[in-house]
Each structure stands twice: as C-alpha cells, then as structure tokens.
Specification:
Layout (H helix, E strand, L loop, with lengths): L1 E5 L5 H10 L3 E5 L3 H9 L3 E2 L11 E4 L4 H8 L14 E4 L5 H13 L3 E7 L3 H5 L4 E5 L3 H17 L1 E6 L1 H31 L4 H8 L7 H12 L8 H17 L5 H18 L13
Parallel strand pairs: 1-2, 1-4, 2-3, 4-5, 5-6, 7-8
Antiparallel strand pairs: 6-7
Helix pairs in contact: 4-7, 7-9, 7-10, 7-11, 10-11
Length: 287
C-alpha cells in the first residue's frame, strides 16, 4: 500500500514521518524545497507537482482550512479527478462537518473511500505516536477501508472509531471549543491573581490542588507565567477552530454563548497582531 501526503506543517509533517517510520511507502509534496529535501532524507519520495500525489493507494491531507482541502481535491484539476477508483482519502485537518460531508459525497461519486481522522492534541504527542485520531466513516465501503487501515493507524497514533464523519469533525471542534474557552478563563484568572499580588508560578502551584486544574493550566499556564508565546498552536488557528465550531453550533440551531465570547477574545488577539503567537498569547489582551 502506498501513501501520499499533502500538508507538511506542524502536525501533518509529524504524521507523514510516522508513516515512514512505520515502514510505509510515502510520497510528499511541498512548495518548500528545503522541507521536501528533509523528507527525502528520511526515505520519502518527492512529488514534483501537486497532481503527482494521485499515484497512490491512500491520499492523506492535513491542511489549515476547509477551503484548502476543497481546492486540493475538488474540480477538474483536483486530486479526486486523478486518483484511481478504490483509492482512499484520509482527511486529518480540523474542518467542519458540512465540509467533510461535502468531501465524502464528492469522493463517493469518483469511486473513492473517504475517512475523517481529526487529531486530538499536540505535535509533541504525535511524535511519540500517542496522538488521538478521531476516525469517522460513512457507508459500507468507507467502513471497510477504515477497518483495513486500522493496523497502520495504530502504528502512527491512537485511533478511535467515533462512528460517522460528522462525529469525527465534531469531537475535535468540541475539544478545541472547550479547551480554548478554558484557556481564556485561565488567562483572565491569572490576570486577577496578578492584581491580588500573587506571583504567577506560585498561583499555578496553588491552583493545581483545586477544581481549577485543567490540561490548559498544566500545559499553557507555565508558558503564560514565563511570558513564553512561541507558536505551538497559534492564535489564528485557535480563532479559526472557534469560528468553525460556532458556525457548527448555529447550523444545528444552538447559540454557543460562552464560546462566542471566547471567540471574541481570540479575534481581538489576532487583530492586535498576535495571530502567529501561541494561543496562550490571548493572555495579553486580558487587561
């Protein structure tokens, strides 16, 4: 079985390397010559053009926005038009359920299987092959494709079959909606702690033994205390996921009041020039 990978960013690059380390044959495409050379040194074949990725059994995409995925696979020049029938598309990006179901329908019209595999946590966890992979597939052929790929997916992460494509998108968006809203509350709480005269590291240590403790406190609390805003998961990406999640909720007739407020905070951070800093830089607008 041969794999092709489009999207070699912080997460996609790690997943592509994990496939290589698992002994799979992988072709990658990058507009950056330096990035392509790095993957060639690890055993990947390098596609000279985007369309060359179609010579595979399994196409993997991990791109920033739903439109980037649409642009890559749909239309006369898209990869769906070039992949051979029976090929599989695994979509690792964080996209909304509507976009994923549109892609699945388009794949099916071409005789392709479509799997949604949103990723749960961080590139650091992915490097250890511990990344949660939330997998969904609709229809008998897609379910068979998922079952057939499970042995490979178990080598590169921790796959969880959550049922449908819709559910696979929703669980990741919900994770980020809750996580980023939690981060906004944590940032505001740390600002209040500073007004109380508390040193931030001491405050975090005290809060560890209370109901305030969370993943964001454990991971991003120390970064905020240190003034470390190096990008791991950026403000722009957080805002994008919050926007998609709020749109998902509204499409189902639900008004996500608290999450809309968190989205407003990240929007303000992005408009303040913090878009490329880590999501914890939302702390800077909590004044």
């Amino acid at each position: 079985m041969t794999f092709a990978f489009l999207g070699l960013g912080n997460m996609g690059g790690v997943l592509a390397r994990n496939l290589l380390r698992a002994g799979e044959k992988v072709t990658v495409f990058s507009r950056s010559a330096g990035r392509a050379e790095a993957f060639a040194a690890e055993g990947a074949a390098i596609a000279q053009e985007h369309g060359d990725l179609a010579a595979c059994d399994v196409l993997c995409t991990c791109l920033p926005l739903p439109q980037h995925v649409r642009d890559a696979v749909l239309g006369e020049d898209g990869l769906y038009a070039k992949l051979k029938p029976g090929s599989i598309h695994i979509e690792f990006s964080t996209i909304d359920p509507t976009a994923a179901e549109e892609l699945a329908e388009a794949a099916h019209t071409r005789g392709l299987a479509y799997l949604q595999s949103t990723v749960g946590k961080t590139p650091q966890m992915a490097e250890r092959c511990e990344e949660p992979l939330f997998l969904g597939a609709d229809g008998e052929d897609d379910r068979k494709a998922l079952a057939g790929l499970m042995p490979v997916l178990e080598k590169i992460g921790r796959p969880r079959d959550v049922g449908t494509v819709k559910a696979a998108c929703a669980v990741k968006l919900l994770s980020n909606l809750i996580g980023m809203a939690n981060l906004v509350v944590l940032a505001e709480g740390m600002r209040l702690g500073a007004l109380a005269g508390m040193e931030p590291h001491e405050l975090l240590e005290l809060l560890q033994d209370t109901g305030a403790r969370s993943f964001q406190m454990d991971v991003r609390g120390p970064w905020m205390a240190d003034g470390d805003y190096a990008p791991r998961f950026g403000v722009e990406l957080a805002a994008k996921d919050l926007r998609l999640g709020c749109a998902m909720a509204r499409s189902w007739g639900y008004a996500p009041k608290m999450i809309e407020q968190a989205y407003a905070c990240f929007t303000e951070a992005g408009e303040s020039g913090l878009g490329l800093e880590d999501a914890c830089a939302v702390y800077k607008v909590m004044k």
